[in-house]
Each structure stands twice: as C-alpha cells, then as structure tokens.
Design goal:
The chain is an alpha+beta fold. The protein is 29% helix and 33% strand. The radius of gyration is 35 Å and the shape is rod-shaped.
C-alpha cells in the first residue's frame, strides 16, 4: 500500500510522541520523597515526493518518502519531600551541565527561594506577635526603710 500523503502520516506519528508522559516521567516514590523527572524533547522530520519519465519518454514513475527522528533528554528532577507542606517541601534539581550563566541563574533561584522562606517565617512570627495580647509591665513598688543610726 502506497502512502499518498507522507507529510500527513509523518505529522500524525509525531503528534503521538507529543504526549505529556514523554516530558514528565513516571514518579519515583521513596521512603520520604517523591521524585518526578522532567525531560526535553527534540525532533526533526523531512519528506520528499517526485515524479518523472524515463530517458525514452515512455516509462515513468513517481515516489515519495518521509522520515522523522526524536530524542529525549532528562533536564531536571522535581523533588517533593513528604510531610513538608508549601514551597519548603519542593526542590528542582538541574540535571544538565549547562553554561556558567544557567548555573548562576539556578543558584540565584535557590537563594531567592531560601530568602522568601525566611521572609515568610519572619512575617508569620510578626503576625503572631501582633495577634497575641501583650501584658502591660507591672510597676514595681519598692519599699525603702529609712533607718537612722543612733550614736
């Protein structure tokens, strides 16, 4: 059976590859963490069609072809710590070697996350202090005994 539209067939097959399960891998469960791999995908395809007649002009033919390639590469791992709620329990680990710039950006992201955690903790503490009624300090009464020395 000859495929009359190789471009359509190739694109349909590539669409099958573009599913979320090909970018976000199966979760790996450990005792205290959930690990979720994240991948990037690259693909390329090409097609060609042609028709012609032989040198004598009487014979001829036509043909078509298509090809595609796809590859995946792990780029990061999302680490979710069980029992820790909020952003404190989530980390993203970079699995690519990357350039110095991408490493620096990643480090800045980590530092900003830590600073935000500290800020949230500070704000929560201040809010709790505001909500807790403060006792007025009691004035201390000091009795001074005036003793006179007799000579």
């Amino acid at each position: 059976m000859e495929d009359e539209n190789p471009i359509k067939t190739t694109v349909e097959e590539l669409r099958k590859l573009l599913e979320i399960k090909n970018f976000v891998g199966e979760a790996i469960t450990t005792e205290d963490k959930l690990l979720i791999p994240v991948m990037k995908m690259g693909m390329a395809f090409g097609t060609g069609m042609g028709a012609g007649k032989g040198p004598d002009g009487s014979s001829g033919g036509k043909g078509s072809g298509a090809g595609a390639i796809a590859g995946v590469e792990p780029v990061s791992m999302v680490v979710v710590t069980k029992g820790v709620n909020g952003p404190e329990g989530i980390r993203v680990l970079n699995l690519t070697s990357g350039s110095q710039l991408s490493k620096a950006i990643g480090e800045v992201g980590t530092v900003l996350t830590d600073v935000m955690k500290e800020g949230q903790s500070y704000m929560k503490k201040k809010q709790e202090e505001k909500e807790t009624p403060k006792e007025k300090p009691k004035k201390a009464k000091i009795k001074v005994k005036d003793e006179k020395e007799s000579v």
